[in-house]
Fold this protein.
Amino acid sequence: MTRRVKWCIGGWLILTAAGWITGLWLFAALSGLALAPLPFVLAARRGGRADPMEPLWAVCALFAFSYLLVPPLESLNAADFISLGGYLELPGAQLQFATTICGLAFLALLWGYFGSPGAWLGRHTPALRSEPGDLIVGGLAAVLFGLGVAAVGAAVVASGVDVSPGAISSGALRNGIVTGFAGRGYLSVGLNALSLSPPVATLWLARRPGRLRIVLVAALSIVAFGLLLGIVGSRILALQIPIMVAVIVHYRIKRLPLGAVLMAGLVIGLLGVAILTIRRHDPVPSPLGAAGALGLTLDGFNYFTTALARTHHFLWGQTVFEDAAYTYVPRGVWSGKPLIYGIVRAQEAVLPGLARDVGGTKATYPVGIVAEGYVNMGIAGVLALSAAAGALFRAARDRAAEASPIFLILLAWLIPNALSVMRGFGPTIPGVAITMLLASPLAVTRLPRRRA
Amino acid sequence: VRAARALVRVRPTPRRAAAGVIAIATLAALQAAVLAAPVELAGGGSGSVRPVAYKIASVAPGRYELSLFYAHRAPRVAQIRLVSIAQGPPIRDAPRSSDLLPTLEVGASRRYMVSLHARRGSYRLQVDGGPPFGFVVAP
């Protein structure tokens, strides 16, 4: 352990102890900030050139904001950060415990990424090294695109809403599609295929860059983006397209400079905060209100504090198992498939009755990876899921760095989905499985030709 | 399968085993402290028969629906009784056991709803003789 690492952890321990000894919430709230520089310290200690597309940055930024930065900001004005008034609550004793355990969870996340779990998982995951040919990569991009367009068409037909500028701008089409998805969850596989087609097409472009290929890939990406944002109304699926394409360009065509990536990240972050602030309709926008607007999406700390107050019986991995096993089982095959399972069950354990209040499963309020771990296995679950998330990202990066196109696609999918991972680990498992399945033709090795 | 096999082959050294035992004991102590920590609900009250949350919803002018949420595995509620009025006018239809409407079990939760007529004020209920539980009606 280097001196800088010891300083960070020592500072956190001192502030945490001061919080418990004095009983002052401020010390506890500030304690997590001492750990915030650790990702930079550990990355610098590892050596080598800084990689701006490393998943570490997205994961740590989201985790640190949700669980280390929100507590001190919340101590200034908690009301700005409560996303579900009347459901979430912040009792004093549980706040103290929550800040301490969130610090431990951040250390577990970093251990999972930099330590033995990530390296071990990377070593023991099949490498799936391959060198698929032009036909396989280009054909896969076309098939994924076709599958996605067909799924969008089917979703529009199921919605019963006519496609018109009015229906799109009013949100009627999006609401119709969301309602039409009931019992047709398999259509989401097609939408995932559509969002994966641009990065696969970029992989095809990387094999032999040329003007015609650039035009084709750009056109496919724009159409996929437009369909997902305009027709389906899925901002997350649409916005992950440019990020996934950037990851492929970075690792296969041209390394993007650190400054450019930082600027792009800053612009995207500020844009997101501005949109969320406008949606809050604050009469006088303030920096704290803007941070609170972001905190309403990244509200894992409040869910965790509430979970500490309300969860006294653990679910022993039930929600993670259900997410992994139930999600893509069609109701046509299993008529008894529960409406409330997986991450929604975790939500009900923390916020009982919320699912019924919002009309069944029309909306999900993911409790966050830390609260999800707690409702399943207490503090051990918190540490296990945090370390597992770190290890998952590290393993995907290690494998993608080798000649493994399927893991490069997985890495490209994981980076924009870091937010989803932070909001719930269980739903990530079927997400990873579907991505690997859709990209599986890339793992087909093209055997080298034998010389006569 | 390969990862599971590798996990089984792990042979901890005595130093690692000792560190593991200390870590597990520390975690267990922290977990016990979390579970033993008193919980102060926004509405007041504590104890094992208290709801984990409550919610007041306005269903008509002057008419409210009080929902009491119970954690899964909590004992089923048999009776809810209005024990005191801290502030505000009396509730016309004070909740009685007959007003108790057990609703569907939703996932891991249990939820009971009581319809009541009130304007504004803060009230205290008692559930199955447990500690009083406060709630606030604020239109």
